[in-house]
Amino acid sequence: MIRAKIIVEGDVQKVGYRDYVQKVARKLGVKGYVENLRDGNVQVVCEANEDVLEEFTKALDVKEEFIKVEGVHVVETTEAKGEFSFFEIK
């Protein structure tokens, strides 16, 4: 299991992006959270197996209707701590 901190840039606030992320995370069994940042980006902190995390990260790069992701950056990876029991929106 891996823990990742991901920053998503683009038009990702006030367009339903966090709901989208939560839906995908729950479908894949990813645990953690997604939250808006003051700079207009979104941060995802999550834990999953490496292959699931790779699929999840690819799914975060979406362009549909109002959501226009310009970049998905995994800024940190460490060993999972097991502190999350589900995926939530903060």
Question: Overview of this structure, please?
Answer:
This protein has one domain: 2-Layer Sandwich (Alpha-Beta Plaits). The protein is 26% helix and 46% strand. The chain has helices at 17-28, 50-60; strands at 2-11, 31-36, 42-48, 63-64, 67-79, 87-89. A hairpin with a 2-residue loop joins strand 4 and strand 5 (67-79). Helix 1 (17-28) runs antiparallel to helix 2. The radius of gyration is 12 Å and the shape is globular.
Question: Which key terms come to mind for this protein?
Answer:
46% strand, Alpha-Beta Plaits, 26% helix, 6 strands, alpha+beta
Residue runs with pLDDT of under 50 for 5 or more positions: none
Widest beta sheet: strand line-up: 4-5-1-3-2-6
What is the highest CATH level, the class?
Alpha Beta
**Name given to the CATH architecture:** 2-Layer Sandwich
Oligomer: single chain
Q: Approximately how much helix is present in the residues? A: 25-40%
Q: How many strands, what sense, and barrel or not for the largest sheet?
A: 6 strands, mixed
Give the number of domains: 1
Number of strands: 6
What is the average of the pLDDT values? 97
**Backbone structural class:** alpha+beta
Rg calculated over all Cα atoms: 12 Å
Give me the number of helical elements: 2
In percent terms, what proportion of residues is strand? Answer: over 45%
Shape by Cα distribution: globular
In N-to-C order, the SSE pattern is: EHEEHEEE
CATH topology grouping: Alpha-Beta Plaits
Distance between the termini: 23 Å
